[in-house]
Amino acid sequence: MLNVSQIKKNFPIFDHNPSLVYLDSAATSLKPRSVIEKTVEYYSKYSANIFRGIYSLSEKATEEYEQTREKTAEFINGKKEEVIFTRNTTESLNLLAYGLGRKIIKKGDEIVTTIMEHHSNFVPWQILSQETGAVLKVININQDGELDVYENKSKVKGQKLKVSIKNSKLINMEAVISKKTKILTLTYLSNVLGTINPIKEIVTVARKINPKIIIIVDAAQAASHKKINVSDLGVDFLTFSSHKMLGPTGVGVLWGKYPLLEEMFPFNFGGEMIVEVFVDKTFFKKPPHKFEAGTPAIAEVISFSEALSYLEKVGLEKIEIHEKELIKFAYQRLKEEFGEDIKVLGDGNIKERSGILSFNFCNLHPHDVAQVLSEKNICIRSGHHCAQPLHQFLGVSSSCRVSFYLYNNKEDVEKLVEGLKEVRKRFKI
Amino acid sequence: MSSIYTEIILDHYQNPRNFGEVKNPTREVEVNNTLCGDRIKMMIILDKEKVTEIKFTGVGCAISIASASMLTEHVKGKTKEQLKKIDKKFITKMLGVNLGVNRIKCALLALEALKRLL
């Protein structure tokens, strides 16, 4: 396990709020001092616009901004010119639906997504399908809370289009993916269930069925918990947000393969995305600048580089192990104390989960659970977590969600258990 | 921070008054708070301009159920004109707790139903 008491010292929020039990990092993470100080540094020392000024302050800001792009690329093993800064993952995905989707999707084409998506990777494709007459296909989940793409090896004949993964299971997607499938878009890590999808294997199988398929991965939850290597995964696009991985709000990332980025429409037109403008026509810059019209979130992007440094220093591999351990521990403790009173969503294979656990408690409304916990300075999420199709599929209207990060430890789990006991007491259950 | 789960709110949540269906209602309405998954169906009998019967069913958090329970108790026997004056301030006072910006909408769901019945 990580040395959490040491880590907590790097997060000023604990100086101001020492008893805070923050279990909502899947919504947004807390920020280390180095990130906050970097923001102050920009505004105090070289607060100027980028790309425009011929003076040293602007040059310094531009350099810091572009260095962050390089660092982001290295972080996921991509190339610098393939990294586009947006406002958040939602904007990255919408940019794809708009800039790529409207270019390549025609009537009768198929777009495949999954039931465990966040609304931001569901609604843009649903709307695109409705506008173009394309078909939106949705991969469901099985009772273990995993994508319904597995089958047992023993039952399978002809393994040409299937790929073997651990536990003697095979991935088979012939039921959903075909030559008509233009886009497959899915999450790396469910923001409700904590399920990690086997992206690399899914990519291999999907490309065997349809070599032309474009694969988009929403890594909003995964990027903060897992080491990501885009070339190893073999995906075409990957999206994530700074604010879920210790960085500031207002910065999202869209990584994409360069030839595809060149093909895409820009979404915003205006400053800094053009080469030349005439009265009757305009020439755009090449990616990534084609997609970054207007003054971006300069301070936030620059500070994001400090978040990446912090994560590298601690090590994502270590963070992943730490969180898996916490999830296992939390599940075990909650079940020990509350048994059938706690219903964890899709808990078939809990040891493979990362960072996130959603549940319902004593038939109480999740808002009431969260409210009583908040009186004890414990922050959890309650509601549908922007994943209504998944909740509908599971037959519940909402749930409580706890999510862990590198500043959480087993003590936080024990405080959660105590808090839930208080909930039960308060509602006389 | 003081709790919003006072004895009176818990009592109305666990033993909601006027919970059930009205036979031959003058009007009925169903309102949702999709964000929370709360749902309230309210049925009313109006005799001329006066409420003679009101009931509700539904699912929701303690605040939304308690609010519906207390509100239906209040409106019985009142005239439409009297009820049109009920606002957010009244509901907060009726519940007797200070709800934050995020929870006030739970409390206002029953009021939305009532307004649509008048």
Q: For the residues shown, what is the average pLDDT of chain A?
A: 94
Order of helices and strands of chain B: HEEEHHHH
Overall CATH class of chain B: Alpha Beta
Low-confidence stretches of chain B: none
Number of helical stretches of at least 4 residues of chain A: 14
Q: Could you give the distance between the termini of chain B?
A: 37 Å
State the secondary-structure class of chain B. Answer: alpha+beta
Overall radius of gyration of chain B: 13 Å
Residue share in helix of chain B: 40-55%
How would you write the strand order of the largest sheet of chain A? 2-11-10-9-8-3-4
Q: Within the CATH hierarchy, at the fold level, what is the topology of chain B?
A: Sufe protein. Chain: A
- Architecture (CATH level 2) name of chain B: Alpha-Beta Complex
Coarse morphology of chain A: globular
The biggest beta sheet of chain A is recorded as: 7 strands, mixed
CATH architecture verdict of the largest domain in chain A: 3-Layer(aba) Sandwich
Give your account of this protein's structure:
The complex is a heterodimer of chains A (429) and B (118). By secondary structure, chain A is α/β, with parallel strands linked by helices. Chain A folds into two domains: 4-24 and 315-426, Aspartate Aminotransferase, domain 1; 46-312, Aspartate Aminotransferase, domain 2. Helix content of chain A is 38%, strand content 17%. Chain A has 14 helices and 18 strands. Chain A has helices at 4-8, 13-16, 33-45, 56-75, 89-104, 123-132, 199-209, 230-233, 258-263, 298-314, 316-338, 366-375, 388-394, 410-426, and strands at 21-22, 83-86, 110-114, 135-139, 150-152, 163-165, 169-171, 181-187, 214-218, 237-241, 252-256, 274-277, 282-284, 342-344, 356-361, 378-379, 381-383, 399-403. In chain A, the strands form five sheets. A seven-stranded mixed sheet of chain A has the order 2-11-10-9-8-3-4, sandwiched between helices. A four-stranded antiparallel sheet of chain A has the order 14-15-18-17, covered by helices on one side. In chain A, strands 5-7-6 form a three-stranded antiparallel sheet, covered by helices on one side. In chain A, helix 12 crosses helix 14. The relative contact order of chain A is 0.16. The model of chain A has no long low-confidence stretch (mean pLDDT 94). Chain B has helices at 7-14, 62-75, 80-84, 88-95, 104-117; strands at 27-33, 38-47, 50-59. Chain B is α+β, with helices and mostly antiparallel strands and 118 residues long. The mean pLDDT of chain B is 92. In chain B, strands 1-2-3 form a three-stranded antiparallel sheet, covered by helices on one side. The longest helix of chain B has 14 residues, at 62-75. In chain B, strand 2 and strand 3 form a beta hairpin. Chain B is globular. Chain B has a single domain (7-117), classed as Sufe protein. Chain: A, CATH 3.90.1010.10. At the A-B interface, helix 12 of A face loops of B.
